[in-house]
Amino acid sequence: MQEREVVLTKREVEARLVPTGTEIMIPVDSFVTITQSLGGTFTVAVNGNLARIEGHNADALGKKPLESSFDTPADGTINENQVWEAIRNCYDPEIPVNVVDLGLIYECRIENDTAEGNHVFILMTLTAAGCGMGPVIADDVKVKIEHVPNVDKVTVELTFDPPWNNDMLTDEAKLELGML
């Protein structure tokens, strides 16, 4: 993660307010402060609010989109390590820790050669049940897994049983958040 950076938007850009998830448009030539740039997405401070800008809109901030490239397994199956790597590039826009180290991923199941092709099923939770960014984070997980070779279908299901708590954080996450 880089230090905060003030940039001028190069074009009008879609964003979502954090933590509500409300869609907004940030006008061209607006000053925004990039507060978090992790996993290819950007959290910016704009007009006293935090907002998340998706990676495919990086050019609006004068940045380049994060490019991920995986080797394609010759046997046509999904490489589980690649799936986990993709998920580790998903971040809560308010917390500089990926969703895996936050303990939000309860299950990752890979089913090769099903009737629908190669399928990845993710069961995950959120740090708070009422989080307006929940659907955005779940969609980020889905989209990043869809870029893994040989993935034909991704299902991401949210659950709150068991509810998330700080004990689910990895030691690395606790260290990053100053809890160790």
Describe the sheet with the most strands: 6 strands, antiparallel
Number of E-type strands: 9
Radius of gyration: 17 Å
Shape: globular
In which range does the helix fraction lie?
Answer: 10-25%
**The CATH homology group name of the largest domain:** Fe-S cluster assembly (FSCA)
**Broad structural category:** alpha+beta
Q: What is the CA–CA distance across the termini?
A: 20 Å
Side-by-side strand order of the widest sheet = 1-4-5-6-2-3
Total discrete domains: 2
- Overall mean pLDDT score? 94
Q: How much β-strand is present in the residues?
A: 25-35%
Output the number of helix runs: 3
**CATH fold descriptor of the largest domain:** GMP Synthetase, Chain A, domain 3
Judging by the overall fold, what is the CATH architecture of the largest domain? 2-Layer Sandwich
CATH class of the largest domain: Alpha Beta
* H-E order: EEEEEEHEEHEH
Low-confidence stretches: none
Structure commentary:
The protein has 180 residues and is α+β, with helices and mostly antiparallel strands. It has 2 domains: 5-61, Roll (SH3 type barrels); 80-176, Fe-S cluster assembly (FSCA) (GMP Synthetase, Chain A, domain 3). Helices cover 15% and strands 32% of the residues. It is built from 3 helices and 9 strands. The strands form 2 sheets. It has a 6-stranded antiparallel β-sheet, with no helix packed on it. The longest helix is centred in the last third of the chain and has 13 residues, at 134-146. The radius of gyration is 17 Å and the shape is globular. Residues 81-156 form the MIP18 family-like domain. InterPro entries: Fe-S_Maturation_MIP18 (IPR052339), FeS_assembly_SufT_put (IPR017776), FSCA_dom_sf (IPR034904), MIP18-like (IPR002744). It comes from marine sediment metagenome. This is MIP18 family-like domain-containing protein.
